[in-house]
Amino acid sequence: MDLTYFNKKDIVIIGCGKMGSALLSGWIDSGIDLQNITVIEPNPSLWLRKKNVRLNKELPKKPVLVLIAIKPQMMSAVIPKLKAFGSSNTVFVSIAAGTSISYFSKILGDKTPIVRAMPNTPSSIGKGITAIIPNDYVKKSQLKEVEALLSSVGKTVLLDFEQDLDAVTAVSGSGPAYVFHLIETLASAGEARGLGAELSMSLAKATVSGAGALAEISELEPSALRVNVTSPGGTTEAALKILMDKKIGLESLLEKAVKAATKRSRELKELDDE
User: Fold this and answer.
1) Full-prediction pTM beyond 0.85?
2) How many domains does the chain have?
């Protein structure tokens, strides 16, 4: 869908921090008329202030979409103020981790079209992936509009169950932080073997980004790509014996990390639902 389709439709963004700004940037690049976008952000960045959006102005009467991009702890103070748009043709899209569809329905009205979405930080460069789950009141045409808007910053995947968002948050939402830490630790390991800090970091960054790009475009599964790099009795095999150790290896560590993040996402949802 060409996003200029939205040029005569009002969109509201509630909260425009890093992720809200990433989405707005994608919409700008796709040609949306900024005069139809109202942004409510009490602490706007210099970047946002320079954009020709309706910043902290009166909300339009019938927005086609309201993007909720605030922290979960701010919900109770903000969402009740949007009740006038509930149970109408306005679609609410929340990118807040751990805040359930039922939470919004209780405040906005049972028949409010609501989509929960979980983007990740690579969205800021158009390389993100966003998992989405709509409630039963989101029409097919509305879901296509939401997917089009979110696709401006990367891929989208449609989930079957809202509960899967907890694991999605743990894998792709938090996942970039795991990869950044991998870069840190790989560079540190290089330094420990005598490489200079700048060189080691350059090698680590290029290796991780290059391997990720190869994995994305290759027809081979990551496991096959790994095997292709691993010569019997070679250096890679020696390293993988450590990384693939069943008890202390990377698989065990990541399983524990994803389990902890999933658990925390569920805890946040339970706090909001109280």
Assistant:
1) yes
2) 2
